[in-house]
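Tutorial sheet, problem 5. The two components below are modelled jointly, 705 residues in total.
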Amino acid sequence: MLSADLLANAVVAGILLGGFYAAVALGLAIVFGQLDIVNIAHPAFVIVGSYIAYILNSRFGFDPVLIGFAAAPVFFFVGALIYRVYFLAFERTGQESLSGLAFFFGVMFIIEVSLILVYGVDYRLVQAEYIGQTWSIGFVDLPLRMLVPFAMSVALTAGIYLYLSRTFMGRAIQAVAQDRLALQLMGANPVRVKQWAFGLGVATAAIAGAMLIIIGPVEPSVGRLYIGRAFAIVVLGGMGSIQGMFIAALILGVVESMVSTFVGPSWSPAVAFGVLALTLALRPAGLFGR
Amino acid sequence: MRLQRLLLGAVAAFALSAFSISGTMAQPKPIKIGFSMALTGGLAGAGKAALIGMEIWRDDVNKKGGLLSRPVEFVYYDDATQPANVPGIYTKLLDVDKVDLVVSSYGTNEIAPAMPIVMRKKLTFPSLFGLAVNDEFKYDRYFQIMPAGPEPKTDWSKGFFELALQQKPQPKTVAIVAADAEFALNAAAGARTNANKMGFQIVYDKTYPPSTTDFTPIVRAIQATNPDIVYVGSYPPDSTGMVKAANEVGLKAKLFGGGMVGLQFAAIQKNLGPLLNGVVNYDFWVPEPTLNFPGVKEFLAKYQEAAKGKGVDPLGHYLPPYAYAYLEVLGQSVVAVKSLDQAKIAAHMHKTTFDTVVGKVKFGANGEWAKSRVLMVQFRDVQKDNLEQFAGPGKRVVLYPKEWKSGEIVYPYKQ
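Model answer (structure tokens):
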């Protein structure tokens, strides 16, 4: 059963899938990895991104990729607002560990139920010219349904990486993750920095949502499937490391794809999470952990 | 004077309350039908559509004076597509809400957890789309409206394999792939039995987790085994992924489909469009002339009106007529035995052939349909981005069983 074309296609399919996983996990890499905020509602924001892509695509025919990038600023402000509520209610009083987790669970359910009430529970999909087309390079197939989200993910991750490493605010976000008090002593406002970072994390969900609905149908509760996977990718990559997160997502995607192809798809989550457990046993801080 | 006024007030209040009591007593006590339903979570799309169908039945019955001259009332709770919620809901329905009759939620995973409670109370239990639930329980008051047939696991895919056997040159090898979940595993088990019984060689037989995002590696692995036919047992998001992946990989199987849930839903049909052409899949009702049962078009007209703006399947061909029919069966039985006696209702349901919007319904000893009517339909000439095309005949041609057939198979799968 092992042949060069099967192997090559399995690796390529895994890389493309990993790219999508990276987009879903990117916001968490900032919010959970850098700020230590357990935003369990992140996949729910991704689903909101999918619904916005669906609405604008079905009504006006806009491309889901463009919709994702256009909706990101709105998500940024919503994220910043949510962080402000979270800060005032929990973080300020030091109750962020358990109460904060419950808060984000609540946000997740509110988003899910609101989507059900407003848009119902039917499956939603988008139309775009490239969905259904496949490019072939030799014996390797590149379905555009996966390639477009992959390209978006690479661009998004590179953009966030450069932003965090090259700009003043990006460095401030990294600083607040490392030593909040030191940042405060230097005259910066850590709450403002965290609010900005949280907004940035939620903004990436708009783009990841557009990718998700390009890949397959979406209904309000589908985000739950990605909670475990997204957190696992952030931990595997190393808390706070964007490049680590991206590589971890690719590893998870390739492992899943290889196992699906050569062993059996039902083993793929077990093997993928086995890789996670093994990596953490050898490197407790993850691949690029701080 | 003040005392007089007080007395007068008291008399008036008494008279009013007496009038109100007599008014209440004049109203017959409603018959309460209790059930849980998936109104949120993964199965909510189907659950909400089913509820619309059930409410149409309730309103139709109440317009005609109710059952046993009593209005019908629903008491239901959202099980959130969580089987763990189901036992609690049925306990509450029976012990707190004191419902008179119960019916099931939608789907195998939601029906099975209610069975022990329903059995303990010896209740008649009309059920909505559970595959082979009673194989384990063997409960004599269980009645399944889904027309899977007396041997649901194997009857489900029998048509797919019988169709394959009729083709020239005859296919020899089969790939079976299914989701790791109750219904799909049952469907795959039945497919395995049928494949072995009919002499097919199984070259691929695997399951996948429900959280799978990309199906191209699976389809490619199937392709590598070069099967003549591919049987898929899947849920809506996976079915979409499978069809897209089969198209992207260029699957060379001659017959593809079988047990894919979701290809019956209008939104998915519209989105997949021409990718569906050639797929042979199960269904229970399609708008073909051979299935034009009395009342079904009127029911669908009401459903389609009620479904507007509710975010559910706008056409409602798959589940809603059966959600209406399982209550028709229950209602007709209550009227026939003139009582709510569970034993009498169950006995009547066992011996009677019912006229419903889904045609004649006759139950066998195990509560499944006495004769299977799992249709195998083939998508034909499906156009891009057009929902209306599925409202009429010609797009899902019935190939099997013979008595409901509306056209000939196009074989192999990809022309």
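Marking note: The two ends of chain A are 42 Å apart (CA to CA). Full credit if you identified this.
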